Amino acid sequence: MSTFAIIGAGLSGMACAHVLQDAGHSVTLFDKARGPGGRMASRRRQWPLADGLTPPFTFDIGAQFLTARDDAFRAQCAQWAEQGVMAQWDDPDHQAHETRWVGIPRMSAITRQMAEGLEIVDDCRISALHREAEGWRLTSDDPEAPQTLGSQVFDQVVFATPSPQSIPLLSAHSSTLTQALQQVEMLPCWTVYIAFDQLLPLDREWDQPEHDDVIQWWAGEHHKPGRGEPPRLIIQATAQWSQTHLEEDPETIQTQLVEHWQALTGQALPAIGLIGAHRWRYAKPQQALGVDWLNDGSLSVCGDACLGGRVESAWCSGHRLGQHLSTQE
User: Fold this and answer.
1) C-alpha R_g of the chain
2) By CB neighbour count within 10 A (0-12 exposed, 13-18 middle, 19+ buried), where does 51 fall?
3) Residues 6 or more apart in contact with residue 230 via CB below 8 angstroms
4) Contact at 8 Å (CB) between 234 and 193?
5) What dihedral do alpha carbons 63, 69, 72, 73 form, nearest 10°?
6) Which end of the chain is more exposed for a tag (fewer CB within 10 A), N or C?
7) Nearest Cα to 311, choosing from 127, 92, 74?
8) Burial per residue of 240-265, b for 16 or more beta-carbon CB atoms within 10 angstroms, e otherwise
9) How many helices (H) does the chain have, and how many strands (E)?
10) Each residue's pLDDT tens digit, 178-221
């Protein structure tokens, strides 16, 4: 049995962890966020009423849906559907070439299901990696990191984080992996999420404007399976626009994207009950390396930089790396 540290508890990292754990290895995942899931993220909100708060509702602020082409991933999706955390999103307004699936009652339900049975240390940003005779030791500058972190030694370390976050940790230990990841540029995305306390008339459930420089995707969140009220709208900006406006404050982003959405669709929005914005600094790779995973001795990489930014690509990269590592002596 080998001991593995996986840095990044998103879809790719957890897919890798499950394969390794099922093969009998000891696996610990570390993530800087408050919970696992990465860009399969949802935001939970309520707003005040005269006599209390509305029932909680959620926004999918990262991945909006997923498709499945790989046989192994299709099998995994079928299992998630049987477990009740995924449903098909049928859309009468578009003739879909592929089945679109969403997590229910939110996209993060999928990664929460994946997290079950895994040892995940959250709120723990790994700041350095140290090679010692007995293995790899990880350290963190995060005050919330467990005190036992410095006493743990791992045989192998897997990086399942965006390449700009992996490179600083890898640069002192693997020029091979560092040089490969330096070829991958990660693109940003601003997401605006809005809730309304009255009917939101939309002429379609979602759209991906083909020739718009500002908005790449919008959807009526309440139209997804398992969502319900209140009416909600998600707007995601293009990578180019997000890069240009990367450091602007969220309030400015909200105003600009809402105004552009109304001009683009010709639809006026009702009074807004709640609005917010989330910046994904590393949303997807401009061009992935086109490999399942990367490996240099006891260090490995999986995720977006390898296969691409689709949900399926992240899962396949981690799953296949886990299969490879679980067969190594």
Assistant:
1) 21
2) exposed
3) 54, 57, 195, 196, 197, 222, 273
4) yes
5) 10
6) C
7) 74
8) ebbeebeeeeeeebbebbbebbeebb
9) 9, 19
10) 999 999 999 999 999 999 988 888 888 999 998 999 999 999 99
Please answer whether residues 99 and 88 qualify as being in contact, where contact means their C-beta atoms are separated by less than 8 angstroms: yes
Domain 186-285: which CATH number of 3.90.660.10, 1.10.760.10, 3.40.50.720, 3.40.640.10:
3.90.660.10
Instruction: State what percent of residues in the chain have pLDDT above 90.
Output: 84
Tokens 């690509």 found at? 313
**Tokens at 11, concatenated:** 């879809």
What would the two tokens of residue 133 be? Answer: 């005779």
Query: What are the domain boundaries of the chain?
Result: 1-36+118-184+288-329, 186-285
How far apart, in whole angstroms, are the C-alpha atoms of residue 186 and residue 303? Answer: 12
Residue 41 host element (H or E): none
Contact 300, 325 (CB under 8 A): yes
Give the residue among 166, 185, 187, 186 at the shortest CA–CA distance from 296.
166
**Residues sharing a CB contact under 8 Å with residue 315, sequence separation 6 or more, in sequence order:** 11, 12, 15, 73, 76
| pLDDT tens profile 66-121 | 999 999 999 999 999 999 999 999 876 666 678 899 999 999 999 999 999 999 99
Global pTM reads 0.94
Buried b (16+ CB within 10 A) or exposed e, 187-206: bbbbbbbbbbbeebebeebb
Structure tokens at 270: 């009702």
CATH no., domain 1-36+118-184+288-329: 3.50.50.60
| CA distance to 59, 138, 216, per residue, from 63 (Å) | 11, 30, 13
